[in-house]
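To the team - zinc ion complex, inputs and output below.
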Amino acid sequence: MPLVSTGELVARARAAGHGVAAFNVITLEHAEAIALGAERAGSPAILQISENAVKFHGGGLSAIAAATAAVARASSASLALHLDHVTDAELLRAAHPAGFSSVMFDASKLSYGENVKATAEAVRWGHERGIWVEAELGEVGGKEGEPPLDAHAPGVRTDPAEAAAYVRDTGVDALAVAVGSSHAMTERTATLDHELIASLASAVPAPLVLHGSSGVPDEEIRRAIASGMVKINVGTALNTAFTGEVRAYLAAHEQGVDPRKYLAPAREAMAGTVAGFLGLLT
Ligand SMILES: [Zn+2]
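Output:
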């Protein structure tokens, strides 16, 4: 079916008190697995491509974005396209012609003042084109001119009052917050600060985004959504499923050379992971 917009999926989930999941696309098989998992779960989903994945594909947005969009359009599930962790202004501008309905603009390496300025500018640019803009805020109470800590660094937490000011001053449509999850975790052992999630949800008018959800156990994700978390980002869990199948096949078939032999079970394993996460959201 035609692509839907991220803003619409997030608004719909929020109104229903549900979550909506965004899964990272690295290869074509990731995109196919996300579509397959969404169809099986009967749920919408967001396919997101990170700036790092774009770099992996040689820096050009068009090929991986076009392939992902084609997979999404061919699916019977409601799927949206999101550009994740964008720091490069040129890549940000490429999002619109490539069919993305949303971007996550990541100015978290800048000082607080510069972060607000750059993000407000990105929001202005996006809103002129109907693009929904997500940003992230970790610890912002640092000294003048000092960069705020990465929202995904262990131990970092987002302050509700600062988050409310940040959303007001930048106009972002959604805010990624630091509440105990962290990127690239291969085991699901993270414990979230549910009291903080509830405080953030009541202080911040924009929907909240949980990055690093691969490391968060099922029950913690359910509780986070009940406390007000809306967009749930999942990347590493797909790669764990993918690589596990590839490794098992290659270990058992030392002479094997046909990539379809291991990419097919790898894609199937990712689809199962996608459907599993989607089952936690309602
Ligand atoms: Zn992230």
